[in-house]
Write a structure and sequence with these properties.
39% of the residues are buried. An eight-stranded mixed β-barrel has the order 1-2-3-8-6-5-4-9, surrounded by four helices. The chain is α+β, with helices and mostly antiparallel strands. The chain contains 17 helices and eleven strands. Helix 4 packs across helix 9, helix 5 (87-97) packs across helix 7 (131-153) and helix 11 packs antiparallel against helix 12 (225-241). It folds into two domains: 6-206, no CATH class; 255-404, no CATH class.
Length: 447
């Protein structure tokens, strides 16, 4: 398979950062203007607004914003006079203007309050703008950056990590810690982009979106809006998945495939998944072991047969053992070797009661056990399976396991779409392109 050049992607992003930085250079006001602004000018107004707001309706990340400013002794973040730091404000504003290339919506980042018409007099004629107004702008821009970091890393509609949960400190990314590090960089664009998922699938979709909503905007190139939205919702799903570097296992429902991602390569296996009435849940778990069962015991235990009666499987009591792949998650779903060739020959394989069936269980088990330290468990498993025995093997090193629902991917440099098996795309698209709803985050009023 031909893969995209990640040097090309990185270079393209670097050009984006360079263009924004260059634009910031020309937008920066002179040093004489900044000299009129004192370092501590906004400390009082910022502290007052964060502690005396009448209700909580404007900020998406109120606790994080308060924690962040408290760590700075309530000094302004974006309107600082020293070291030319005000250039970060221009970069942040331009970054918000470009969120379409990340599959996000500008309307989610305080667009009514964060305007160039509001920022320009603050920068060019600071003495003419009330400190309270400057403080409000600074706070809202900080909240917008926290919101963007959250959306780039976790996703806008993450079902497991809502904005309120992230604001309370859950998740692997501390927004205030990241923004502190971002502000130390001359180019905040690249630093903000760095929180995005690192999986190849995400980076390829992001480059596709960057190309069509960034590089080619205004040119003679056109791409249907339907494709733009399709890519956006699948980038969102990949943010939810939180896929890191390999090795890891991924079952993607619309493609009916299980993939084992290693450092330099990956392996694919056909699978069967839950039907529309009993959908296989999307989840992130950990594969911890392999259990061998007599064939009839495993099939009946997993309740996999719905459209195909058990008698059609022609099970025999002396068949070799079949394998269940044991993973830890909060959902009662299993994955097992399931020898029913007529199912795997179908193009659409959503046929079970939610469980996942794989045709080549022995091959998958061998590949997973080769990843284990010492590589000593495989001979014992093969011997037990061939003898039709029941046995369990606990993996010495657990492997991340993801079930995803990706209805498009980049293959050989082209966008490829897949059947929306459970009819989920339209609902997610509608939610993603609405303004950030009240249910996603609490807010705090800023005067």
């Amino acid at each position: 398979m031909k893969h995209l050049s990640y040097n090309r992607i990185a270079a393209s992003f670097s050009r984006t950062g360079y263009i924004l930085a260059l634009a910031c250079f020309f937008c920066l006001p002179g040093k004489a203007t900044f000299a009129q602004v004192q370092k501590e000018e906004l400390t009082g107004p910022i502290s007052h607004q964060l502690h005396n707001a009448p209700n909580h309706k404007s900020l998406y990340f109120p606790m994080t914003v308060k924690r962040f400013y408290r760590s700075r002794d309530y000094r302004q973040v974006w309107l600082m006079p020293e070291r030319g730091e005000a250039g970060h404000a221009w970069q942040a504003m331009m970054l918000l203007d470009c969120v379409l290339q990340y599959g996000l919506s500008h309307s989610d980042y305080h667009p009514a309050e964060l305007t160039y018409d509001e920022l320009r007099p603050i920068m060019e004629r600071p003495a003419s703008v009330r400190p309270e107004k400057k403080a409000a702008f600074d706070i809202l821009l900080t909240d917008a950056m926290f919101t963007l970091l959250d959306h780039l890393h976790y996703g806008k509609l993450n079902p497991e990590l809502t904005a309120a949960a992230v604001d309370a400190g859950r998740g692997d990314l501390r927004l205030d810690t990241v923004l502190t590090a971002v502000l130390k960089q001359p180019d905040i664009v690249l630093a903000m982009e760095a929180v995005q998922p690192k999986s190849k699938a995400y980076q390829q979709l992001q480059y596709w979106m960057h190309k069509w909503k960034g590089l080619y905007t205004g040119d003679c190139y056109e791409v249907p809006e339907e494709q733009i939205r399709k890519v956006a919702i699948n980038m969102e799903r990949l943010r939810w998945a939180g896929i890191a570097d390999g090795p890891y296992i991924q079952v993607n429902i619309p493609t009916f495939t299980l993939s084992v991602f290693l450092k330099d390569t990956n392996y694919r296996y056909p699978v069967i998944v839950g039907n529309k009435k009993h959908p296989t849940p999307l989840l992130a778990g950990t594969l911890t072991g392999i259990h061998a069962y007599p064939a009839a015991t495993l099939i009946r235990a997993l309740r996999v047969a719905e459209e195909l009666p058990l008698v059609q499987l022609n099970l025999k009591p002396n068949l070799r053992s079949q394998l269940e792949f044991v993973f830890v998650s909060k959902y009662p779903v299993s994955m097992a070797e399931f020898n029913a060739p007529e199912w795997y020959s179908k193009a659409k394989r959503a046929v079970t009661k939610g469980n996942i069936g794989i045709a080549n269980g022995a091959d998958l088990a061998a590949e997973l056990l080769r990843l284990q330290p010492g590589n000593s468990q495989l001979p014992a498993l093969r011997k037990g399976v061939n003898a039709g025995q029941e046995m369990s093997i606990k993996l010495k090193r657990a492997i991340p396991f993801k079930i995803t629902y990706l209805t498009c991917l980049i293959r050989d440099g082209r966008l490829v779409t897949f059947d929306d098996v459970y009819q989920l795309d339209a609902q997610l698209e509608q939610k993603l392109y609405q303004d950030l709803p009240e249910i996603i985050a609490k807010k705090v009023n800023i005067p």
